[in-house]
Write a structure and sequence with these properties.
This protein has helices at 8-24, 26-48, 60-91, 94-99, 104-130, 141-165, 169-185, 199-203, 208-221, 228-252. The chain is an all-alpha fold and 258 residues long. Helix 2 runs parallel beside helix 5 (104-130), helix 3 (60-91) packs parallel to helix 6 and helix 3 (60-91) packs across helix 9.
């Protein structure tokens, strides 16, 4: 019944506003991440990769493609999700939205939907760009799209929470820079965790990014460090946790009404 009572006009208004902001800052939102990732493909894929042995039967340049795409997706999803909700808080317009006849679900769908759409669009552009530097194939395109969309939605939700939590611009950057980026680099983006010595391969399994990268890589080449079922389960579990936190925030008004 709640789904039938959704206000599509409110969702569309928030979604369009956020997407319009992206196209107004296309150099920062799209061009910069694509160029940065392209440099990784040139250096690690074409230059260094041609001199390295294959990993699980996949050339090194092709092996790092899913990891690099995931690195960009995680960073941009969090950035888009956090900045979108933080700006209304910073400018004070969030009080107008909270007092309007717009439900919490409609607000989340608008902001998170726009942030996830930007990430999916960015991931698709990076995937197309990668073909210019590194030859690769996608064994399971439907699964690849599924992981791309699911990861974008999950980390856009996480970014939404971060944007509500932050009370300054510096806090919007500290979690992606100090937590997410290191976890992504240590999560098998550039290597297989099976290459790690002894106990470190087991320690890496506590890194949630390992499951994201591994599942996405499986959709490309059919090889992974952990089972695809475990990757999917971990992603869904993290999304559920984010949904619970968002529900609690709107229920209590934490950081929204103060």
């Amino acid at each position: 019944m709640a789904v039938l009572s959704l206000n599509p006009y409110a969702i569309r208004a928030i979604y369009r506003f956020e997407m319009a902001r992206t196209f107004r800052t296309v150099v920062q939102s799209i061009a910069a991440p694509v160029i940065s990732t392209s440099l990784y493909f040139i250096v690690f894929g074409a230059a260094i990769g041609s001199r390295m042995a294959k990993i699980d039967g996949v050339t090194y340049g092709a092996f790092i493609v899913p990891g690099l795409i995931m690195l960009s997706i995680l960073t941009e999803s969090i950035s888009n999700g956090s900045f979108g909700i933080y700006m209304p808080k910073w400018s004070g317009t969030i009080y107008e939205m909270l007092s309007a006849p717009v439900s919490a679900l409609e607000v989340v769908l608008g902001y998170v939907g726009a942030a996830a759409s930007k990430s999916v669009m960015l991931g698709t552009i990076i995937l197309i760009t990668a073909r210019l530097f590194v030859p690769f194939h996608i064994a399971h395109p439907v699964w690849a799209l599924g992981f791309l969309v699911l990861t974008s939605m999950t980390f856009s939700l996480f970014g939404f929470i971060l944007g509500i939590w932050a009370d300054g611009f510096e806090k919007l950057q500290i979690v992606p820079l100090m937590v997410i980026t290191p976890l992504t680099f240590l999560g098998g983006s550039f290597y297989s965790i099976n290459m790690l010595p002894g106990i470190w391969a087991k320690v890496a399994l506590f890194n949630p990014v390992v499951y994201l990268v591994s599942g996405f890589r499986w959709s490309f080449y059919g090889v992974s460090d952990v089972g695809v079922g475990a990757s999917l389960a971990m992603t869904l579990l993290f999304m559920l946790a984010c949904l619970v936190v968002v529900w609690w925030i709107f229920k209590t008004g934490w950081r929204l009404k103060t």
